[in-house]
Structures are given as structure tokens and as C-alpha cells.
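Q: Is it fine to ask for two folds in a single conversation?
A: Yes, each is treated on its own. Send the first.
Q: Here.
A: Result:
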Amino acid sequence: MTTKLKLLQICNDLVDKRINGYKEEISLIKDAIESSDKGNLEDDDVGNSNLLSDLEKNLGYLADAQKNKAQLLLIKPNIVNAEAVLGSIVKTNLMNFYIAVSLGKIDLEDESYYAISFSSPIGQLLRNKKVNDQFEFNQSKYIIKEIK
């Protein structure tokens, strides 16, 4: 299995885990709302308000995670491009990036990769860059050494 395929699988697993976690949380909140509605005490109004707020937050998180999943489905791991595109591994003089969705650091085969999206600040700087292109981010100068 190629490094790109392994990184894609790790990202899919992380996003799936997030989706399942949010779904479980939403289910628990809905159950709590239903059980407090049955009691229907006035003191429960504040509790229900907090539960509804938590429900809205988790529904938003779930929607974001589902967007990430849809983004991952667009990645074609077998395609190699000379420019940094969705699904590219970009190795620089300072760190390695995997352009997919923003998930942070992934350690794989004695190397670290930062899963980022094109909508992130550094992702915007990487878009369509080629080997030997340079860019600056947070007072650091990056030189692209390799794109897979």
C-alpha cells in the first residue's frame, strides 16, 4: 500500500470516528431531552435550553465532519501531479504535508505528515505550487522538495 493510500485511509478512519462520536452524542442528547420533557418541571427549562444548545453544536460538528468525508471521497490516491493538488503529499525542507482535510499531525512509517485542507492558511499557500517553489509562513521559509 502506498503512503498516499495509507494517509487517505488514516484520514477516513479519523473522520469516520468523529462522525460516529457526534452521532452518539446527538442520540444521547435527544434521549435526555425526551426524558426531561416527560417530567416537564419548570426547573427543566434551563436544562433543556442547555441540551438544545449542545444538540445544535453537535449537529454543526457532524455536518462539518460529513463535509470532510465528502472531501476525502474526491481524492484519487493513484494520480500523481506535478503541482500540489487535493491528495498530494508535499515534502518541504521543514515539514511534510498531506493535502486532504484539516486533521493535524499523522505519524506514518517514521515520518510525520500534517493533514491540511486547501482552505487552511498554509493550504492556500501550497495550492498549485511545484517542486523548488518557495513560500513563507509564520516567519519560516519553506522550499518544496518533493510532490507525490
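Q: Second one now.
A: Result:
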Amino acid sequence: MNHIQEVAARLRGLRDALELTAEEMAHQCDVSPEVLAAYESGESDVPVSFLHRLASAYGVELTALLFGEEPTMNSYFVTRAGKGVKVERTAAYSYQDLAAGFQRRIMAPFLVTIEPTDSPLTLNVHSGQEFNYVLEGEIELSVGGHVTRMRPGDSIMFDSLRPHGLRAIGSTARIIAIIS
């Protein structure tokens, strides 16, 4: 089973455990029932922004939805170099969770590797704020209709209720993304 199908199975399991209809969960998470059905079937990749919104709405850990593991630490959690929980979200994105073992976190830090693509930007919207810091490569980032290019050392913080998306330009890029 690939990662998209594993996340889809966890979504279905959560909805079943909460005894919610697809319409109820879709409404609570601000997506159409058709979009939720595509996520739950594994036909469509589930954006981290949606998983974050779902985790917040139902009081579950983002880590449990993404990786199927419950965090265990509540005072501190160390992630050693190269040891964060990794997931290939799409062909263009790879996420490494830098605090997967920390319970009840209010932000989610990721090391994100982005492969260049000619595909149009996919825009996401979720509650909270997001911080991105470019480590390597160059990215094109759109926030609320404003597009900017960012290089190593550049950072941005924004209201993630604004439609946003990014892509690597020219070569592989790596960023630190912190989602709250």
C-alpha cells in the first residue's frame, strides 16, 4: 500500500471512529463531500493543509494522520540529523517531520524537499500561519495572488488562510516549513 492509500485508510478510520457522515466531516473541514470521497478512496493525494485542519477540528495528532504513529513525548523531543519521519507526499514533494514524537503540538515543523516541475501551482488554504525558510535551491511562492521568488536564506511568514503554493525553480529545493 502506498502512502496516499495509507493516509486514505486513516481518514476513513477516523471518520468511522467518530461516527460521522462524509457530509458532516466535509462540512467541518471546509471541503466538498466529493473531495473528501477522493481523499478517502486514495484517488487523490491529501494536502497537509487539509490534514492539519482535520487534526485541529477533531483533536487528533497530525502525526497520527500522516504517519500512523501517535507521538509520545510532552516535554521535549529531539530529532537527530536525517532521522525525522519521512513521507513522499507527491512526486514533487517529500516531507520530513522534525517533531513527530511531540504530543499536542501547536506547530508542525517540516524539512520539505521540492523537485522542479512544469505543473501549475496547487494552492492550499488552512487556518493558522505558515513560516518557510529556504535552505537550498530557488522556489516560486504565491501567497494571496502575490508571487515571489526566494533563494537560500530568504524566509516568509504568512496567514495561511490566504491561498498559497510553491514550486522549485530549476533544481531541487529544500525548505523548512513550520505550520501552526
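Q: Anything structural to flag on that second result?
A: Two points. The radius of gyration is 16 Å. DSSP finds five helices and nine strands in the chain.
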